Amino acid sequence: MRSITFLRAMAIAVPILAACRDEEPAGPARLDPASVVQASLDPRLVAEGRSIFRFDTFGDETFWTDTLRLHRVIQRGVSPAAALGLGLKVDVAALPRDIRSALRKGTIDLNDPATTLALLKLNAVVGLVGRVNRRGNLASVGTTCALCHSTVDNSFAPGIGRRLDGWPNRDLDVGAIVALSPALTSAQKRVYRSWGPGMYDPRFNLDGKNLPVVLPPAFGLRRVEREVYTGDGVVSYWNAYVAITQMHGHGRFSDSRIGVSVNNPPDLVSSKLRPLRVYQFSLETPAPAAGNFDARAAARGREVFKGAARCAACHAGPTYTDVNQGRLHRPAEVGQDPAYAARSATGRYRTTPLRGLWGPPQLTGPYFHDGSAATLEAVVDHYEKEFDLSLTRRQKADLVEFLKSL
After folding, report:
1. pLDDT attached to residue 350
2. CB contact set of 90 (below 8 Å; sequence gap of 6+)
3. Does residue 376 contact residue 400 with C-beta atoms inside 8 Å?
4. Dihedral angle over CA of 50, 52, 54, 59, nearest 10
C-alpha cells in the first residue's frame, strides 16, 4: 500500500486544464474568437511554455513535500511497477541508452523503490519532479501540468514511451493516488477512492462535494473560446485556478463568483500563464488514424450530423461548439445532471468541442463531463432519446463513424 501513496497525492496536481485565452487569472473574461485563431505561436514562447507544462511545479513542493511528506513515502516503498499500475507514465526520451537497454533485458528491478528515485532523478516520470540529494535520498517532490494532461504512446512498453502532451491520462487513478496520503482523514480517502481512473474533482477540496469529472484533452484549444466544462473562464483563468487551488502552487487566485480567494505568496504563477497558454495553443488535435473509422459511413454520418440528428445546431462551425458565439446551456437543455454545473461560476455547460474521438486507447471515452456515456453509441442514444430524434439503426451507426473521424 505504501508504494501507491506518492502517486495518489501527486495526481491531485493537475486536473482539468482549460479553454482559451489570456493570462488574467480572475473574473469572467470574454474573448473575441478571432483573436483566438490569430493568437501568436511565437517559437520562443512555445518552448518556454513546453518547459513550464512539463516541468514547472509553481513551488508546490511546499505542499506535497512539507505538508504531506510524500517524499518519505516514496523513499520507503514506491516501486515503478506500483507507479505504472496506477497510471503514471515514463518518458522514454529521458532515459539514457544503457537504461533503455537494461529495461529491455529485464535487468532493472521495477519492484525496487530505488529505481523510482533513479527515474525521478532523470526527470523521466511524466508530471512529477523530484530532487534527490547527495546521500541518495528524495529531498522533495512536486507535480506539474503534465501529470494529468500528458500520457505516452506506449512505444517502448506499456506506460513507457514518447510523450503525448495535451492527451489526457485516462489511466491515471487520481483519487486512488490521493487517498494514500497520510495527511488525509478516512472520510476524505473514501471520497478519493470512489473516483476511478481518468476522473478528477477540481472543486472537492473547496466545497467538500464529490462530483468527479472526466480529465479532458488539452489539445485543440487554440480556436475554442472556453474549454472548461462549465465555461467559467478562458484558458489562463483555469490554469491559474488549477496551479494555485489544486496543485497548491504559489500565487494568488480570486473569483467572487464561486467564493474562492487563495493567496499563497510568493507569486510563481502569473508570469508563466502567457507562455503556458501559447504552448497549449500549439497542441493540435491529432488526426484520425487510417482504419479507425469507415470513411464511407462517416461521409453519410456527416449528413446525419447536420440534418436528422440536429447536432450542428450546438456543435457549430469548424470547432464543433457554439461556445465561441457566447452560448452556454442549462443542464436541462442537454439532459445533463445539474449538480456539477451548480458548483461553477456559470451554472451551465458549454458544448463540447468535438475533437480526438477517434479511438486509440488513450482517447477512447468515457464521454460527457461526468463520464456517464461509456461509448459514442451511448452518446448518440442519449441525444436520440433527449431530443426524440427517431434515427434509424444505420443513421446512428453512420453518425458514430463520423464522430470517430473528427
Report:
1. 96
2. 80, 84, 119, 124, 125, 126, 152, 159, 160, 161
3. yes
4. 180
What Rg do the C-alpha atoms of the chain give, in angstroms?
Answer: 21
Nearest to 149 by CA among 276, 290, 29, 27: 276
* Mean per-residue pLDDT, 292-305: 96
Q: What pTM, to 2 d.p., does this model score?
A: 0.89
Of the chain, the percentage scoring pLDDT greater than 90 comes to: 78
**Strands 213-214 and 199-200, how do they pair?**
antiparallel
155 has pLDDT over 60? yes
State the burial class of residue 359 (Cβ atoms within 10 Å of its Cβ: 0-12, 13-18, 19+).
middle
Domain annotation for the chain: domains and CATH numbers: 2-282 (no CATH), 295-404 (1.10.760.10)
Cβ–Cβ < 8 Å for 195, 212: yes
- Residues in contact with 110: Cβ distance below 8 Å, sequence separation at least 6, in sequence order: 79, 80, 81, 84
pLDDT in tens, 200-216: 999 999 999 999 999 99
